[in-house]
Amino acid sequence: MKKTALIIGASGDIGKAIAMNLSKEGYYTYLHYNRDHQAIHDLQKNLGTENTEVLQADLSQPGSVEILANGIAGAVDTIVYNAGASYYGLMTDINEETKNRMIQLNITSLYSTIQSFLPRMIKSRSGNIVVISSIWGQVGASCEVLYSMTKGAQISFVKALAKEVAPSGIRVNAIAPGAVNTKMLHHFSEDDMLQICEEIPMGRLANPQEIADSVSFLISNKSSYTTGQTLGINGGWN
How many structural domains is the chain composed of? Predict the structure, then answer.
């Protein structure tokens, strides 16, 4: 029987790399996206419509998780929650709408997504959950207080849930990337990017494939005794 995976945020740079890896590893993939219809169409075409299904939902809005739950009939072996929205600015400048959308996307929808599919995993007594958090969820970042807060909550969620579902054969882990060469960093100037690279001991940004390979490791039998952990992929930055 073919393994199945739900990838939240599959249209982004990291999400696409994860989807490509899982497809090569024999997974049937449910590809979630929000706005980038062209990117998800190209990804599905690349992976094959017989091996994929596309689901659209704005997970920064309440009630959107129901679209995922209703759109997937059977059990899902692996869930990768790769929500990818950030906000750069002073805490005092963030309005209520931005705050609520970020909390909904990174915390509430994460909780609700896992809550929706967990009973099926428990019934089959197997499963893998990987949350793509951030280095800022570990150490915090000035001018990214809201993002840091929600990404830190994801790490606490992983630690707690891992203990709860380990007896059911389900493993839960997080990845905390440092600076990754994706569209999320494109608002920084070239000088800003050079300065960031100078702060990183390895002297460069990560590429999306390096994050995807870490996901593949965490859902493989090579990490069969690993749960409740946060894997920092940051070039020695933290």
Answer: 1
pLDDT digits (tens, 9 = 90+) for 68-83: 999 998 889 999 999 9
pLDDT given for residue 224 in this prediction: 98
Q: What is the CATH number of the domain that holds 177?
A: 3.40.50.720
Q: Between helices 109-124 and 145-165, what is the axis angle to 10°?
A: 20
Instruction: Return the bridge partners of 27, or none.
Output: 3
CA-closest candidate to residue 32, choices 52, 9, 15, 60: 9
pLDDT digits (tens, 9 = 90+) for 2-12: 899 999 999 99
Residue spans of the chain under pLDDT 50: none
Read off the pTM: 0.95
Helix axes 145-165 and 96-103, enclosed angle (nearest 10):
20
- Number of Cα atoms under 13 Å in the Cβ half of residue 137: 26
| Per-residue confidence (pLDDT) for residue 117, from 0 to 100 | 97
195 is written with which tokens? 């300065």
Mean pLDDT of the chain: 95
Instruction: Out of 27, 28, 147, 225, pick the active-site residue.
Output: 147
Residues 6+ positions from 79 with CB-CB distance below 8 Å: 5, 6, 8, 113, 114, 117, 127, 128, 129, 130
**Measured between alpha carbons, how far is 4 from 165 in angstroms, rounded to an integer?**
19
158: in domain: yes
Work out the number of other CB atoms within 10 angstroms of the CB of residue 35: 10
**Residue 225 bears catalytic tag:** no
Asked whether residue 238 is assigned to any structural domain, the reply reads: no
